[in-house]
Amino acid sequence: MRSRSNSGVRLDYYQRIVQKIIMAHQNPVTGLFPASLENNHAWIRDNVYCILAVWGLAMAYNKMADQDEDRAKAYELEQSCVKLMRGLLMAMMQQKDKVERFKMTQNPIDCLHAKYSSLTGQTVVGDSEWGHLQVDAISLYLLILAQMTASGLQIVFNLDEVAFIQNLVFYIESAYCTPDYGIWERGDKTNHGLPELNASSIGMAKAALEAMNELDLFGARGGPYSVIHVLTDEAQKCQAVLQSMLPRESNSKELDSGLLSIISFPAFAVDDAMLIQLTRDTIVDKLQGRYGCKRFLRDGYRTPKEDPRRLYYEPWELRMFENIECEWPLFFCYLILDYCFQGNKDAALEYTEQLEEIMIRTEEGMKLVPELYSVPAEFVNAEYKEPGTQERIPLGQCPFMWAQSLYILGKLLQEGFLAPGELDPLNRRLCSEKKPDVVVQVVILAEDNEIRDKLAEHDVMVQTIAEVAPIEVQPAKVLSHLYTYLGRNKKLGLSGRKSRDVGILSTSKLYSLGDKIFAFTPQFTDMSQNYIATDYELMIDICKSEINFLKSSWQNIMGRPLVTIACRNVHLEF
Prior knowledge:
With 574 residues, the protein is mostly helical. The chain has 19 helices and 17 strands. The strands form 7 sheets. Strands 3-4-5 form a 3-stranded antiparallel β-sheet. It has a 3-stranded parallel β-sheet with strand order 11-10-17. The radius of gyration is 26 Å and the shape is globular. Belongs to the phosphorylase b kinase regulatory chain family.
């Protein structure tokens, strides 16, 4: 019998923890995790975060395997990830009609549910009985689906599922203008049930759109029909709104610790390093305490002053929660991962020590992350007078699976079992790195020989549209029409993309369709769609601004932008 290496023994220790704390609760039929032993509701967001530790451990075993038994464990862990992700996929596909309606209405009543039964995968509450519209949850699912697929897992099995995933992309692409209930399912801070634009939802949607773009869901075995396509302009709109909001979370929430998931793992949605630093510093300064971070200022959840008989509070009443908000160890886990990805071992170790001081130890010696720490009722007045001085007590679930999973990931990173790149095979963590200057390429083509000759008289040598064959030049409306075919599926009753808008980022690429290559002229030059295009002086000004926009916005996109402009007779009429 071969002896185990030290790393193998340590991995086995984490495998036992994951098995006992996480895997033991996975439903054998649906693959979903219940919220607790008493509550069989399975939240999309919590389930995805729960499985991250399993995925990380599987990759660690694959890398460190020194016995066949290790490879068997890795395979079992991988298949648990696949089962969970497919369980969520099946649950959402049961609501395919809602996906189709939501693309047209953006009505909260028409959205996918945020939670399902862990026993059956069916819905557990009515459409209007919960704040189901949580764009960040669907986006997180798509993001992790993309990362897991890129790591080699086969989660999507057929083209019907590919079509559904493509429609989920269309479902979230308008996140930048879709008010939702956010990561805490409550919308407005007063809990009136009013959805609002949330930076955490927009950021997660932006990350998901970028991660899914050009991803082959069948991995190395796929082909053109299993590739997901995203209009780059939709991700850019999310980026613009996100950067204008940070470090603010929403209209009612000045700040939210949930933004840690946007500026760092898993989303890495912000390109501006200074904005990332500002957001992180603001969260640490305003929300961090001894036991974790507050979710947001004046958060009354599970505080002694909260009245469980009331559904909402008036804005002026929220002041009674000031300085006694519950602190969540979950956010220490996010900060540990953040510093691991930055390579700052000292800061990661410091937060790990803070976290482990407040973790709950079992009789077997396992450390559990509780959901939150609350000020006891008898210490509230003292906490009001001197914030942060009173001892707090753990409340809620223990372990809090979402946090426990992230804690285990952090330990695997710190002990060298995982490298940051393995948790981020799509390299999203590099989005804030400095990149070379973008060179915008502009190609001017003549509509016909007559235009070409006129331009030649002024020493402007161009080709005609016919001469650039085999590349076909088409207006933007053709690209828009082609995108409507993506995701169409009669069996599922899905119709593909509804919006006909196509931006400059999408038309500044070459497209391959079958054996043909297409170039598309920008939407602002299409006279049949845009009467402004008939005013050539105005069109030139618009063209200049669009090129400047391309230069600043062509981030995390392969190659150089190519703007194709067709010079027509109307442009030369003086």
